[in-house]
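Annotated sample (chain length 157).
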Amino acid sequence: MYDTITVTGNVAGNPEFKVTAGGLAVVNFRLGSAQRRLDRSTGTWVDDGTNWYNVSAFRGLAEHIAASVTKGEPLVVTGRLRLRPWESGGKKGVSIDIDAEAVGHDLRWGTTSYTKQATGANASASPSSSGEAEDAWAAPGLDSAAPAVPVGGETPF
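Output written by the structure step:
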């Protein structure tokens, strides 16, 4: 039995994508989750170490990560936690692995643009009267042509 975990952190290196001999898409990357705490005596935030995770994803999720994620980007990763003891050259340790079930950019630190993958029924969707394919999942009242960032680069916050 596996525990499910959600971790926020930054990608330590570009994800490594490969396809196995059996045709399975796999991506692997390291995620660093810095721990910060408030030092009450000085009133400042101080770094309190970093936890490192080996993240793996498979099939379509692997392909989407490979196409969307690069080194340094902040992510939110949810998946199955695995702790693997290791021993090498007289040293012992534990590797912390996450088999990702969902991965997304951490929007606290910036914006992102989403492109829905056309699959199954969506790939053969018939055009609507306006000439565009209807998206059953689109939020009502949102203009898909609206810019992701306001003109002039200013944020509304």
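Annotation: The first strand starts at residue 3 and ends at 11.
Annotation: The chain has a mean pLDDT of 82.
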